# Entry
Amino acid sequence: MDEQTPRPPSRRTVLRSTAGAAGAGLGIGALGDRTAVAAPTTAPTAAPEAVTTPKRRGATMAGVPFEGRATVRVGIVGLGNRGSSMINNFLALPWVRVVALCDPVRTKVERASTSVVSAGQPAPALYAHGEDDYENLCARTDVDFVYVATPWDGHFPIARTAMLNGKHVGVECPAAMELAELWELVDLSEQTRRHCMQLENCCYGRNEMRVLRMAHAGKFGELLHGAGAYNHDLRDLLFSPTYYEGPWRRLWHTRLRGDLYPNHGFGPVAGYMDLNRGDRALTISSFATPALGLAEYRAARVPSGDPSWKETYVTGDRTISLLQTAKGRLIRLEHDVSTPHPYSRINSLGGTRGIFEDYPARIYLEPDHKDDQWGDFGAYAAEFDHWLWKEHANPPGGHGGMDYIMVYRLMQCLQLGLPPDFDVYDAATWTAPLPLSHASIKAQGAPQEIPDFTRGAWLGARAGVDSAKPS
Ligand SMILES: NC(=O)c1ccc[n+]([C@@H]2O[C@H](COP(=O)([O-])OP(=O)(O)OC[C@H]3O[C@@H](n4cnc5c(N)ncnc54)[C@H](O)[C@@H]3O)[C@@H](O)[C@H]2O)c1
# Structure
């Protein structure tokens, strides 16, 4: 590690200093604002907000391989719904050992420890002494990779600490909550030579990987537009007293007006279009509906006197963002977790030769289809399914198997010493719409510049999720 690399602050220190910067009195918790929750501005549409690219302090991490190791040793921070489900994907791989677990809730680490032992592995070290105990997990010398599945405000400080302690790190979405934090993750990854990855499982869905391969094979012609979303009715869960560890997720709806979860929609489309690998996202313009859904749900379902009655929700029930790429392509992102609707990540791609739309999957490509009749997407499985899905036709685990496929591939890269399919530049790019959609909505849809986190390296073609099968 570079001698000048700063020491990691504790998570509490990060949160305290962030709250200080936010200004007192908002009553909205630690990350109130840099991009404060404000009444709609009446300012005229502004030019894109200038983004200053910080000076590079380390070499690029694009294409940098892992070291390679016979056994990959994993530490897991956060064992709630996600962490306690994902642990089974790590435990399913014979070359992976889960050596340390951390969560302030002791019963959760103990339950996860039982899973490790039941899988035939030695009992892991447990860290359950409060919010900062992840620092001790990160300081261990027998951990190669840290997986972070905590509430969103924990992703940045824990990823930061992991890298400063010499660990590769994979965080759940979103990678961080602010642009400055995304830049810091990029800089730290480059300085520490550790990979910091956003574990975007949706990139590994069977449909997404098939579309990816078809796009790269030219089946859509020249790519023109794509769309992705997180349209998932979470109202029951957001108000459940037991599902999440506290109300952290609902509270974000009192803080930011934009797209709180852009990664699931953006990651796959970014892959189709080779963002950071030949194209890049330049600007984002975002628009929001009124925020009514959560308050209406609360009025109908939540007893008066519940703490949620003190909350004022500001996140638009549906936000829609339009991104323009350097090649002139358009990407539409949507977010809606607070109104009734069937689940959809939209997952669409269009080009000069046709279009794919998901939910349900349908395709229309020339010369295969005609007369305005959608075609059968399944007909392309044999030729275009990704090798990972051919090798693992019925993968175990959640979300239709894509969680397992992602973990399998990442752990394979760590074992074989391959570059990861996605890196810190992708993590920052896929997350940037979160703070920038908020900024754009505050400015009545004014386009915001999306930083070039690669600092110019986006022009070069390189492998991504569309990987070749290792020999
Ligand atoms: N990729 C996906 O498909 C997917 C699905 C669900 C959730 N997620 C993400 O996973 C993350 C966790 O979501 P969840 O549903 O499991 O929430 P959760 O509330 O069930 O779990 C969060 C866990 O983190 C623990 N925690 C809080 N602060 C901590 C700290 N300082 N150190 C260690 N542990 C800490 C909590 O005690 C809790 O057990 C979120 O970022 C969410 O967006 C991703």
